[in-house]
Amino acid sequence: MLDITNIRQNPDDIIAMLGNRLLENEIPKVSELLDLDRQRRELVQQADEMKALRNRVSREIADMKKSGSGPANELIQQMKAVAEDIATSDSSLKNLESAIEEILLSLPNRLHHSVPVGKSAEENVICKEQGGFDYSLDFPLKNHTELGKSLGILDFERGAKVSGAGFPVYTGKGARLERALINFMLDTHTSCHGYTEIFPPFLVNRESLRGTGQWPKFADQVYTIEEDGLFAIPTAEVPVTNLHRGEMLDAADLPVAYTAYSACFRREAGSYGKDTRGFLRVHQFNKVEMVRFTRPEASYEALEAILGHAEAILQALRIPYRVLLLCSGDISANATKCYDIEVWSPAEDKYLEASSCSNFEDYQARRMNIRYRPEGKAKPEFVHTLNGSGLATSRLMVSLLEHNQTPEGRVIVPEVLRPYTGFDIIG
RNA sequence: GGAGGAUUAGCCUAAUUGGUAAGGCAGCAGUCUUGAAAACUGCCGGGUUCACGCCCAUGGGGGUUCGAGUCCCUCAUCCUCCGCCA
Question: Is A281 an active-site residue?
């Protein structure tokens, strides 16, 4: 959520940002917002005057009663009318405020000055390409679904029977390999990168979705449990960032760094027919997430750190990848700056998104009211929040299986995972 | 699921029969001091105002009342029991 005071002072900045994000049709919202804000402030002023009157006269009535100079019935009748006027004015104020909030919640975040202006994914900037790792794949390659089936480690058909398309089942060594990946990533982030491990709830309430910005904008992508008002998390970002919702963080504790495994649930509504095979697009997948709360001045440094921590996993697994700096037309609404990491799939012959590392500055903190008291200052300030996948296992598994396959159709387990799997080859 | 109790600012704690949130700690600024501590003074939830001030804020949302921390309804969370349960 953006700061209404800031919008009032610099409306042109917001309009320019909406243009860069290719959201020209949302530009009228800015003047609408400013208009509502003006109305609200006028109304508040009027209501405040009436309330001041009510408070003053109420005190007078109290004094009269104390001194025994009569019940002052006439005065009370007058105040009855004032109370009604206040109620009327308060209810229209409430309407105005919710209209303002609705617009504020729907406006995207600012963009960092380093974000390239661009119209589509084509204009994302490639920051880094990390290839090589000496794989000799000079034989007919199997893709991950073929390997999964022939080795008996992945079962998409039975997953479809039990739940539906896009709910993969891991069996035997496949399940063990998946668990090994998760454990390896969590161990690396906690032991080497200084994160505190969190095991969060997988169902959250609406306030939490609103806090991180999945609500109301992406409501149609979230699985909903109507009866209990709960939602299946699309990412651990939601419960983990909301851990501190409404809290005043101790400045000495910053930066706070959490890592969490969770299953992630996404409806992927509207994307049927695209990349449907195997793990390429699923409704449930596993992910290890990194979340940080920082002082405002430290957040961009923290973003680079998160990116580095995600990259460290890929380097240890020897998986080729590239890093993209997303352009203004492709970056998500909540982020001011975002890097995507894509892993290479030799069988699909393309890159697959496996991580997204974002700075949200105070956009989420303002929604969630997460503050800290800076040293040397009396007033609390909003923290900055960030997160990054470190990483999603589904796309990782694609690349891992395909790169480590042998001409005989077996899969060699990457060395760093062997302590976790207890075996070094599948098949 | 049922019964009772609780929720006040970053933390801790008050508030006659309903009369308009009092303190303490921590924090910030200053005085004093060679420096620090102590002591003292001011600030110390949010909005609005050049300012004085005014308004809002006692877990969330409603209601009664001229007036609600206080009374009523409802929801959430925590505690103590009872029941049920993997």
Answer: yes
Chain centroid to Cα A404, Å, comes to 32
Using one digit for the tens of pLDDT, what is the confidence trace for A211-268? Answer: 999 888 888 899 998 888 889 999 999 999 999 998 888 888 889 999 999 999 999 8
Whether the CB of A245 is less than 7 Å away from nucleic strand B comes out as no
Estimate to the nearest angstrom the gap between the alpha carbon of A410 and the chain centroid. Answer: 37
Cis amide linkage into residue A53, ω under 30° from 0: no
Three-state DSSP at A351 gives strand
ipTM of the modeled complex: 0.85
Q: Does the C-beta of A380 come within 7 A of strand B? A: yes
Mean per-residue pLDDT over chain A, rounded: 91
What's the CA A360/C1' B70 distance, rounded, in angstroms?
43
With beta carbons less than 8 A apart as the criterion, state whether A288 and A329 touch. no
Structural domains of chain A sorted by starting position, each given as residue range(s) with its CATH number in brackets: 4-106 (1.10.287.40), 121-426 (3.30.930.10)
Chain A residues 326 to 345 whose Cβ lies within 7 Å of strand B are: none
Q: What CA–CA distance (Å, rounded) separates A365 from A211?
A: 8
Ranges A206-215, A299-308, A340-349: which has the least confidence: A206-215
C-alpha to C-alpha distance for A89 and A230, rounded to whole angstroms: 34
